[in-house]
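Kindly inspect what follows.
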Amino acid sequence: MIRVEFKEHQQPGYALVIFNNWKGNAEIEIAIQRNQDSWYLAEQEQWNSEPVWHQLNGLSFDAENNLAGEIGPTIIDPLLQQVSNVRYMILARDAQGNSDRGVLRMVGNILSSSASGNSEREDLVHIASEPEPEQAVEIESEIVTSTLLDDDTQPTAEFEPEPEPVPPMSQNKSKSKLPLIIAAIIALLALLAVAVWFLLFNKSDKPTTQTTACEISTMGNDELGFIQKCLKNNPEKKQLLQLIEQAKEAKQCSLAQRIYANKAQGGDVEIALAYAKEYDPAHAQNHCFQADKETAIYWYEVVLTNDPNNQMAQQRLQELKK
């Protein structure tokens, strides 16, 4: 996971940006997600439910091999307009397929462009947003009503035939129903027995598509395709958590992180809580996840966004923010 910092700049509306531990090249684009509702920064200081990517220009690697440069008002101003307790997750990627994420840290007294008294902006980013969907065309449907015939137009019968007399039921016929009832009960019990036998003894030994789609042994070299195929089959939460554990044991750290982030950002409280614990200094760490207070706080706040009464997240946030 990368560490991203926006540091104070002498010019209002700008900040120094540093990407620590970035493994890609200098030509990157980023998406910025806020924790309060998991929406992404879009154009014209708007926020979108889908990622909007901002191209960063003029970045280079410094002496410590961290990617660094300047970032302008297009990004700085809308972030400073949010309330102070909002936190941000930065998603970064380059054209070669490298990608990573990290919690944003704002360092120093960063000012918006309005502090300079100059309304003109010189932005250092180019926003590449997803195309807007075509507007749906409303189609009016015609309501066809049927007209009921008036009572005067209803045809009437000239006469009604007398009902035929119904012969009284004999005592023998009433008694003959008992064997039929017994036979029906026996037949019903036989059907139930067949159903139970089928369920208990006729199960197929072949694994289901849902199971095989999420088996780490079937991943191959296409990690992203494996994740998409697995999630498309709507696996149970228990199976996803097992897959994450398998990924950590196999040192497939990127796989574990992607599954965690996908489900946590989608509002899954249990997985978001497990993800927060991975970075919580109070919990045991492993080779895939190292203790990171800021990242733990971010995911605990995501938990509370979807479950405001979650006591564990509330308790850990109070401890981490001391």
User: Anything to note?
Assistant: The chain has ten helices and eleven strands. The radius of gyration is 33 Å. The longest helix spans residues 177-201.
